[in-house]
Amino acid sequence: MSRINLVTTATATPEQQELLSAIQAKLGMVPNFLKVFANSPSALRAFLGLHSIASEGSLDAQTRERIALTVAQKNSCEYCVSAHTAIGRGTGLDNAEMEANRAGSSKDAKAAVAVKFAQSLVEHQGEVTTAELLEMRAVGYSESDIVEVITHVGMTLLTTILGKASRLEIDFPKVSL
C-alpha cells in the first residue's frame, strides 16, 4: 500500500480529474506514480511537461528506455525497473538488452556509451569526467544529445525517488531488482 495518497477518479478534485483523464486517454491507464504526482496538480503538470519536451528530443525511444532502466536499477527502484521494462519491451528492447542496460551497458556500442554515462551521472551525482564527455562525443552524441541524456537521468531520478518514498504498489508486470 502506498505511503502517499493515490488520487483516483473517486477522490480527485476537478483539476486532478482533468489531468488523470488526459493521462488515461493517452496511455490507456493511469500508472500509480502519476496518481501520487496528482496530489499536486502543479507537480504533475511540471512532470508531464518535462516528459513531453524530453520525448521530442533527438534520443530515440530505445535509448531513453535504456537510460531509464540503468537509473532505476542504480537507484534500486523496483517500481521503475518494472515500469521501464514494460515500456522498453514496447520499444522493441529484448530481455537480454534490458538486463545489460540494468547492469550499465548495452549490446549496441553507441547506446552502451550513453548508458555508461547515465550510470556515471547517478554514481557521481553529476560529477562526470572530461573523458566521459569526450567518449560521448567520439561515438557521435552531440551537445544536445548529452543534455538530453542528463535530462532523462534527472527525470528518472525524480520518479525513482517518488516511487521509493511512497512505496508504490507496482502496476506493471513485476520485475525484481
UniProtKB/TrEMBL annotation:
Top-level taxon in the UniProt lineage: Bacteria
InterPro entries hit by this protein: AhpD-like, AhpD_core, CMD-like, Uncharacterised_peroxidase-rel
Keyword Thylakoid belongs to the record: no
Keywords noted in UniProt: Oxidoreductase, Peroxidase
Any Pfam family matching the protein: CMD
Domain Carboxymuconolactone decarboxylase-like: 43-102
Gene Ontology molecular function terms on file: peroxiredoxin activity
PANTHER family registered for this protein in UniProt: CMD DOMAIN-CONTAINING PROTEIN, SI:CH211-175M2.5
Name of the molecule in the record: Peroxidase-related enzyme
Source species of the chain: Undibacterium piscinae
